[in-house]
Amino acid sequence: MDALNETGLAPDALQMIDSTVVRAHHQATGRKKGTPRQGFGRSKGGFTTKIHLRVNGAGLPMRSDITPGQTSDYLGFELVMSDYLPEPAVLLADRGYDSDDVRKTMAARIVVPVTPMRKTRKLRIAVDRKLYRLCNLVARCFNKLKNARRVATRYNKTAESFLGFIDITSIRLWLRHLST
Q: Which residues sit opposite 172 in a β-bridge?
Protein backbone atom coordinates (compact mmCIF):
# COMPACT_ATOMS: atom_id res chain seq x y z
CA MET A 1 0.00 0.00 0.00
CA ASP A 2 2.96 2.33 0.54
CA ALA A 3 3.81 2.13 -3.15
CA LEU A 4 0.26 3.18 -4.03
CA ASN A 5 0.44 6.17 -1.69
CA GLU A 6 3.79 7.22 -3.18
CA THR A 7 2.40 7.18 -6.71
CA GLY A 8 -0.58 9.31 -5.67
CA LEU A 9 -3.08 7.04 -7.44
CA ALA A 10 -6.51 6.52 -5.98
CA PRO A 11 -7.48 2.87 -5.35
CA ASP A 12 -9.63 2.82 -8.50
CA ALA A 13 -6.92 4.38 -10.67
CA LEU A 14 -4.74 1.28 -10.32
CA GLN A 15 -6.45 -2.02 -11.09
CA MET A 16 -5.27 -5.57 -11.69
CA ILE A 17 -6.71 -8.58 -13.50
CA ASP A 18 -5.77 -12.22 -13.26
CA SER A 19 -7.28 -15.68 -13.27
CA THR A 20 -6.94 -18.91 -11.32
CA VAL A 21 -8.09 -22.46 -11.86
CA VAL A 22 -10.40 -24.20 -9.39
CA ARG A 23 -11.00 -27.93 -9.38
CA ALA A 24 -14.60 -29.01 -9.57
CA HIS A 25 -15.98 -31.91 -7.58
CA HIS A 26 -16.90 -34.77 -9.90
CA GLN A 27 -20.52 -34.78 -8.70
CA ALA A 28 -20.90 -31.07 -9.43
CA THR A 29 -20.56 -31.56 -13.16
CA GLY A 30 -23.88 -33.31 -13.64
CA ARG A 31 -24.71 -34.54 -17.09
CA LYS A 32 -22.38 -34.21 -20.04
CA LYS A 33 -24.30 -31.79 -22.29
CA GLY A 34 -24.46 -28.71 -20.07
CA THR A 35 -20.91 -28.59 -18.75
CA PRO A 36 -19.36 -25.88 -21.01
CA ARG A 37 -22.30 -23.51 -20.42
CA GLN A 38 -21.89 -23.92 -16.67
CA GLY A 39 -18.17 -23.11 -16.76
CA PHE A 40 -16.75 -26.64 -16.52
CA GLY A 41 -13.69 -27.52 -18.54
CA ARG A 42 -12.02 -30.87 -19.03
CA SER A 43 -8.36 -31.61 -18.38
CA LYS A 44 -6.28 -34.65 -17.47
CA GLY A 45 -6.96 -34.05 -13.80
CA GLY A 46 -10.74 -33.81 -14.18
CA PHE A 47 -13.17 -30.93 -14.37
CA THR A 48 -11.92 -27.38 -13.76
CA THR A 49 -13.29 -23.86 -13.74
CA LYS A 50 -11.30 -20.66 -14.25
CA ILE A 51 -12.13 -17.62 -12.12
CA HIS A 52 -11.32 -14.26 -13.75
CA LEU A 53 -10.96 -11.42 -11.26
CA ARG A 54 -10.60 -7.64 -11.44
CA VAL A 55 -9.10 -6.11 -8.30
CA ASN A 56 -8.69 -2.48 -7.21
CA GLY A 57 -5.54 -0.88 -5.80
CA ALA A 58 -6.41 -1.98 -2.27
CA GLY A 59 -6.51 -5.62 -3.34
CA LEU A 60 -10.29 -5.93 -3.11
CA PRO A 61 -12.36 -7.67 -5.78
CA MET A 62 -14.30 -5.45 -8.14
CA ARG A 63 -15.63 -7.92 -10.71
CA SER A 64 -15.47 -11.69 -11.16
CA ASP A 65 -16.59 -14.14 -13.80
CA ILE A 66 -15.98 -17.78 -14.66
CA THR A 67 -15.10 -19.72 -17.80
CA PRO A 68 -14.21 -23.36 -18.47
CA GLY A 69 -10.80 -24.24 -17.05
CA GLN A 70 -8.99 -24.59 -20.38
CA THR A 71 -9.95 -21.05 -21.51
CA SER A 72 -7.06 -18.69 -22.14
CA ASP A 73 -6.64 -15.66 -19.91
CA TYR A 74 -7.12 -13.03 -22.60
CA LEU A 75 -10.51 -14.52 -23.55
CA GLY A 76 -11.73 -13.69 -20.03
CA PHE A 77 -10.46 -10.12 -20.32
CA GLU A 78 -13.67 -8.72 -21.81
CA LEU A 79 -15.77 -10.50 -19.17
CA VAL A 80 -14.21 -8.61 -16.28
CA MET A 81 -13.56 -5.32 -18.07
CA SER A 82 -16.97 -4.81 -19.69
CA ASP A 83 -18.89 -3.26 -16.85
CA TYR A 84 -20.00 0.06 -15.41
CA LEU A 85 -17.04 0.10 -13.00
CA PRO A 86 -14.64 3.07 -13.06
CA GLU A 87 -11.94 2.87 -15.71
CA PRO A 88 -8.42 2.44 -14.38
CA ALA A 89 -5.58 4.76 -15.28
CA VAL A 90 -3.16 1.82 -15.04
CA LEU A 91 -4.04 -1.86 -15.51
CA LEU A 92 -1.66 -4.55 -14.27
CA ALA A 93 -1.88 -8.03 -15.77
CA ASP A 94 0.34 -11.05 -16.30
CA ARG A 95 1.67 -12.50 -19.57
CA GLY A 96 -1.57 -14.33 -20.25
CA TYR A 97 -3.24 -11.01 -21.08
CA ASP A 98 -0.57 -9.90 -23.57
CA SER A 99 -2.34 -9.83 -26.91
CA ASP A 100 -2.72 -7.19 -29.58
CA ASP A 101 -6.49 -7.04 -29.07
CA VAL A 102 -6.14 -6.38 -25.33
CA ARG A 103 -3.55 -3.68 -25.93
CA LYS A 104 -5.75 -2.01 -28.58
CA THR A 105 -8.73 -2.09 -26.21
CA MET A 106 -6.67 -0.47 -23.46
CA ALA A 107 -5.36 2.19 -25.83
CA ALA A 108 -8.93 2.99 -26.91
CA ARG A 109 -9.96 3.39 -23.26
CA ILE A 110 -6.88 5.54 -22.53
CA VAL A 111 -5.53 3.03 -20.00
CA VAL A 112 -1.84 2.31 -19.53
CA PRO A 113 -1.33 -1.47 -19.65
CA VAL A 114 1.50 -2.83 -17.51
CA THR A 115 1.76 -6.33 -18.92
CA PRO A 116 4.96 -8.29 -19.52
CA MET A 117 5.20 -9.41 -23.11
CA ARG A 118 5.00 -13.00 -24.25
CA LYS A 119 8.24 -14.53 -25.36
CA THR A 120 6.89 -14.96 -28.89
CA ARG A 121 6.20 -11.23 -29.36
CA LYS A 122 8.34 -9.78 -32.11
CA LEU A 123 7.92 -6.12 -31.15
CA ARG A 124 9.49 -5.57 -27.72
CA ILE A 125 7.43 -3.57 -25.22
CA ALA A 126 8.89 -2.13 -22.01
CA VAL A 127 7.29 -2.78 -18.60
CA ASP A 128 7.61 -0.75 -15.41
CA ARG A 129 8.86 -3.50 -13.07
CA LYS A 130 8.35 -1.48 -9.87
CA LEU A 131 4.70 -0.97 -10.73
CA TYR A 132 4.29 -4.56 -11.91
CA ARG A 133 5.38 -5.83 -8.47
CA LEU A 134 2.05 -4.62 -7.12
CA CYS A 135 0.37 -7.35 -9.17
CA ASN A 136 0.79 -9.66 -6.17
CA LEU A 137 -2.29 -7.99 -4.67
CA VAL A 138 -4.51 -9.95 -7.02
CA ALA A 139 -2.77 -13.21 -6.06
CA ARG A 140 -3.32 -12.36 -2.40
CA CYS A 141 -6.97 -11.67 -3.13
CA PHE A 142 -7.28 -15.11 -4.75
CA ASN A 143 -5.69 -16.62 -1.65
CA LYS A 144 -8.26 -14.92 0.58
CA LEU A 145 -11.09 -16.02 -1.70
CA LYS A 146 -9.87 -19.61 -1.73
CA ASN A 147 -9.88 -19.72 2.07
CA ALA A 148 -13.60 -20.30 1.62
CA ARG A 149 -14.04 -24.00 0.91
CA ARG A 150 -16.95 -23.42 -1.48
CA VAL A 151 -14.70 -21.30 -3.69
CA ALA A 152 -11.51 -23.41 -3.42
CA THR A 153 -13.33 -26.50 -4.71
CA ARG A 154 -16.40 -26.06 -6.84
CA TYR A 155 -19.33 -28.08 -5.52
CA ASN A 156 -22.09 -26.23 -7.41
CA LYS A 157 -23.63 -27.48 -10.64
CA THR A 158 -24.73 -24.10 -11.98
CA ALA A 159 -22.50 -21.18 -12.85
CA GLU A 160 -24.88 -18.73 -11.15
CA SER A 161 -24.68 -20.41 -7.76
CA PHE A 162 -20.88 -20.68 -7.93
CA LEU A 163 -20.60 -17.00 -8.88
CA GLY A 164 -22.93 -16.24 -5.97
CA PHE A 165 -20.51 -17.87 -3.55
CA ILE A 166 -17.62 -15.95 -5.08
CA ASP A 167 -19.62 -12.72 -4.60
CA ILE A 168 -20.47 -13.58 -0.98
CA THR A 169 -16.80 -14.22 -0.24
CA SER A 170 -15.87 -10.96 -2.00
CA ILE A 171 -18.37 -9.01 0.09
CA ARG A 172 -16.88 -10.59 3.21
CA LEU A 173 -13.44 -9.30 2.14
CA TRP A 174 -14.84 -5.80 1.56
CA LEU A 175 -16.54 -5.78 4.98
CA ARG A 176 -13.34 -6.94 6.68
CA HIS A 177 -11.41 -4.15 4.94
CA LEU A 178 -13.96 -1.47 5.79
CA SER A 179 -14.13 -2.47 9.46
CA THR A 180 -10.40 -1.95 10.00
A: none
Distance CA 165, CA 173 (A): 12
The CATH number of 2-179, from 3.30.420.10, 3.40.50.1240, 3.30.160.40, 3.30.1490.20, is: 3.30.420.10
Asked if residue 73 lies in contact with residue 49, where contact means CB atoms within 8 angstroms, the answer is: no
Q: How far is CA 158 from CA 34, 102, 108, in A?
A: 9, 29, 35
Q: What angle do CA 116, 44, 97 make, to 5 degrees?
A: 15
Domain ranges of the chain: 2-179
- Burial letters 19-51, b for 16+ CB under 10 A, else e: bbebbbeeebbeeeeebeebbbbeeeeebbbbb
The whole model's pTM is what? 0.84
Across the chain, which has 180 residues, the per-10-residue mean pLDDT values are 34 86 71 63 78 90 87 84 82 87 89 85 80 90 90 80 90 84
Q: Which residues contact 66 (CB under 8 A, 6 or more apart)?
A: 39, 49, 50, 51, 52, 159, 162, 163, 166
